[in-house]
# Entry
Amino acid sequence: MTKKEFDICYLLAVNKGRLLTYEQIYQSVWNGYATGGERTAVVYHIRNIRKKLSNIPALSIQCVGELGYCMEVETEELQ
# Structure
């Protein structure tokens, strides 16, 4: 994973189950204010992250409408 991909993945993991907007992801990872191109940058990196995590079925990054992304983690319940 590239540094940006790792930073996005880490941000989503720390906030699992919570929606993060494109702007929030961009501001956190790129340390700057969104100027209009943040959505394209975030979408590009999320696509790469999804490919790299495709062999881990318990992790998924969900697109929430046109708002942003949310990481979901499936866990097995202990019986």
